[in-house]
Design a protein that fits this description.
The complex is a heterodimer of chains A (about 190) and B (about 475).
Chain A lengths: L5 E9 L6 H4 L19 H4 L22 E4 L11 H9 L3 E4 L4 H8 L4 E4 L2 H9 L4 E5 L4 E3 L5 E3 L4 H9 L3 H6 L2 H12 L1
Parallel strand pairs in A: 1-2, 2-3, 3-4
Antiparallel strand pairs in A: 1-5, 5-6, 6-7
Chain B lengths: L5 H8 L1 E3 L7 E4 L2 E4 L5 H10 L9 E4 L8 H4 L8 H17 L2 E3 L9 H8 L7 E4 L13 E4 L2 H10 L1 E4 L3 E8 L8 H12 L7 E6 L1 H5 L2 H9 L8 E3 L4 H7 L8 H11 L12 E6 L6 E3 L7 E3 L11 H10 L14 E4 L7 H11 L9 E4 L4 H9 L2 H8 L2 E2 L20 E4 L14 E4 L2 H10 L11
Parallel strand pairs in B: 3-4, 3-6, 4-5, 6-7, 9-10, 9-12, 10-11, 15-16, 15-18, 16-17, 18-19
Antiparallel strand pairs in B: 1-2, 2-8, 13-14
Helix pairs in contact in B: 2-6, 7-9, 13-15, 13-16
Classes of the chains: A alpha/beta (about 190), B alpha/beta (about 475).
The structure holds iron/sulfur cluster.
């Protein structure tokens, strides 16, 4: 995994609350056995009409959305199914961070393991971001801070271990594997 | 000893390394369940890194999600129609074989939906930590096990180390007191709880369902309640084990036997929350005030009593979007809304008691013309048990389809789908846009409401059909 320190990009806004992982990555694309190429199906049922043509009004289809790495979404983003295909799809599409007032537990945990930074903000900052879609913002992971379009800076909470892993490009599997002695010890204790 | 909750006891007993400010806990996993959809990339990672499975005997695999419920496809008489699903199934079979994992495969007599077979086989037991790459793993909490859904990267963690990195969640007590009314089921209870909590109301928490109403529920009903904990955003749902739990488990193929069972029960009796132990948050629900529920919107919190009307919420954009998708008008009554599909199935409501209750409502009635009613038992064992009592005849004679077990129409990825724009009364757990097929309009309800609606061809109150 590549280390992540800062993300600087214009935003795409999807203000709707409770965007679930079935919207982010519909179930019919889950028969894949790899992580690759899921960006193509991201938000498929909102992005394309029944004939497969892009729906012009959808946020990702607007011309100014091209190249944006930060998604500003409504409350309780990523609820529902545990499918990691949702953060894989967002990352593959090009997103590197999701900002919301509330992000569902399993999605947040999955995102952190895939280089997609979940950023939790207060209502006022959220409203400011939604009011100016396309504005440039920056995320400094080292300082856990987000610089809003007006230049003001807000801090966001992020699980310290996951942040450490993102900053240093460490994957959590290696960390767990380093705990094998403690695991073996636990197993012996349980058998006794 | 300080008073502890059931959750705290479960958590502490599985801490390999406790959490610190800087690092999450390393938590041991006693049982890992896995299926074809959320595991392929985890096995690929093991292969890439040259890792083996630490405790293959603690993982049990089955096929349910992309697996067809059509008999001929399932048993290989004809090829599986969805090529990508067929490939995924084959790859899963070879992954399990390569890594030494027991698979209850396509033609296995004990195959079924992952959250149905764990309890049915007695694999699910009080005091265990249970995980699966599936959010409805919360189902197993009905036994007093700490059970939660994980992502695919974490599936890899469990395979390689039998452990997970976890932050300790908060606790939320949902106290339910009083008698459920006639025609009001565990499904209505949990829909009502989600409505009160909101779809994000349980985020960051483990729910313990408590109170006299919960104590009176059967294991199957408790599973229905715990199953939908995730729909309130909760990590897990729990019910403390009691005599009902032990009676359910005794004699199950994978449960301890004889004196080992006695010893296990003695240990399980120590699990319930101690008197005086505190929760981070508590709510109280009055069971007597709950009616049969049905959803009108696009998340499981958007529900009303079945005799109610679609809520009016001017200025609420989310509400307006949901109604637009559902093709419903604010203020319209739910009863009488025409439906084209009825789905009786899923890990929420496809156990034997669900099939019995629905069959009871069907009686000698016929499914209304223009309605496709599909009945999908939760496991092959349930299917056989239902057939032994003649329930299959009741459904088939009424004009319903009787299928092999699997996730089926709960999620549109195995060939069973609701057509665009059609309404489906469904006993499953998610009414998200497109969940049952592109453009499908899902109305979540209980098995008896589903059966009543199949007869009427419209949303119908099950209480009018009860003996
Ligand atoms: S029945 Fe539905 S909710 Fe349950 S495991 Fe299958 S797809 Fe998931």
């Amino acid at each position: 995994m590549d280390p992540i320190r800062t993300i600087r990009s214009r935003t795409v806004a999807m203000p709707r609350a409770n965007i679930d992982t079935d919207q982010i990555m519909p179930a019919r694309f889950l028969t894949t056995t790899t992580r690759a190429g899921l960006g193509e199906h991201l938000f498929a049922d909102w992005r394309y009409d029944a004939a497969g043509r892009p729906i012009a009004e959808f946020a990702l289809n607007r011309p100014d959305a091209a190249g944006c790495q930060i998604l500003v979404a409504g409350r309780n983003f990523g609820c529902g199914s545990s499918r990691e295909h949702a953060p894989w799809g967002l990352y593959d599409y090009g997103f590197r961070a999701v900002i919301s007032t509330e992000i569902a537990d399993i999605f947040r945990s999955n995102a952190l393991k895939n280089g997609l930074v979940p950023v939790l903000v207060d209502e006022a900052s959220h409203a400011a971001l939604l009011a100016r879609p396309g504005a440039e913002v920056s995320i400094d992971l080292e300082r856990s801070s987000l610089t809003l379009p007006d230049g003001s800076e807000v801090r966001f909470p992020i699980e310290p271990f996951a942040r450490y892993c993102l900053l240093n490009g460490i994957d959590q599997t290696s960390y767990l594997l380093s705990k094998q002695a403690a695991i073996a010890d636990y197993e012996r204790r349980m058998q006794a | 000893m300080t008073a502890r909750t059931l959750f705290e006891k479960l958590w502490q007993a599985h801490e390999v390394v406790p959490e610190t400010v800087d690092t999450p806990a390393v938590l041991y996993v006693d049982l890992h369940l896995t299926h074809e959809v959320t595991s392929p990339q985890a096995f690929a990672t093991l292969r890439e890194r040259g890792l083996t499975v630490r405790r293959p005997e603690l993982t049990v695999a089955t096929l349910d999600h992309s697996t067809p419920t059509d008999r001929d496809q399932l048993f290989g008489k004809v090829p599986i129609r969805m090529e990508s699903a067929a490939r995924q199934i084959r790859e899963f079979e070879s992954n399990c074989a390569e890594f030494g994992i027991e698979l209850l495969g396509l033609t296995h007599e004990q195959r079924g939906i992952v959250h149905i077979i764990g309890p049915e086989l007695g694999l699910t037991q009080p005091g265990k930590t249970i995980v699966c790459g599936d959010s409805h793993t919360s189902t197993h909490g009905a036994f007093g096990a700490l059970a939660f859904g994980i992502g695919t990267t974490e599936v890899g963690h469990v395979l390689a180390t039998q452990c997970l990195l976890q932050r300790k969640p908060r606790t939320l007590a949902v106290n339910v007191e009083g008698e459920l009314g006639r025609g009001v089921t565990a499904k209505d209870l949990v829909l009502s709880i989600i409505h009160q909590l909101g779809v994000g109301g349980g985020t960051g928490s483990v729910i313990e369902y408590r109170g006299s109403t919960i104590r009176r529920l059967s294991m199957e009903q408790r599973m229905t309640v715990c199953n939908m904990s995730i729909e309130a955003g909760a990590r897990a749902g729990l019910v403390a084990p009691d005599e009902t739990t032990y009676a359910y488990l005794e004699g199950r193929p994978r449960a301890p036997k004889g004196t080992a069972f006695e010893r296990a029960v003695a240990a399980w009796r120590k699990l319930p929350t101690d008197p005086g132990a505190g929760f981070d948050r508590e709510i109280v629900i009055d069971a007597a005030g709950i009616a049969p529920m049905i959803t009108y919107g696009t998340n499981p919190g958007m529900s009303v009593p079945i005799t109610g009307t679609v809520p009016v919420r001017s200025g609420d954009g989310v509400h307006a979007k949901a109604l637009e998708y559902m093709g419903l008008t604010a203020g319209q009554p739910m009863l009488g809304q025409k439906v084209e599909f009825v789905f009786l199935g899923s890990c929420t409501n496809a156990r034997l008691s669900d099939l019995r209750e629905a069959a009871g409502v069907l009686g000698g009635h016929k499914v209304a013309t223009g309605v496709r009613f599909i009945v999908v038992p939760g496991s092959q064992q349930i299917k056989r048990a239902a057939e032994a009592e003649g329930l299959d005849r009741v459904f088939i004679d009424a004009g319903a389809e009787w299928r092999e077990s699997g996730c089926s129409m709960c999620l549109g990825m195995n060939g069973d789908v609701v057509t665009r724009g059609a309404y489906c009364v469904s006993t499953s757990n998610r009414n998200f846009e497109g969940r049952q097929g592109v453009g499908a309009r899902t109305l979540l309800a209980s098995p008896i409401t589903a059966a009543a609606s199949a007869i009427a061809g419209r949303i119908a109150d099950p209480r009018g059909f009860l003996a």
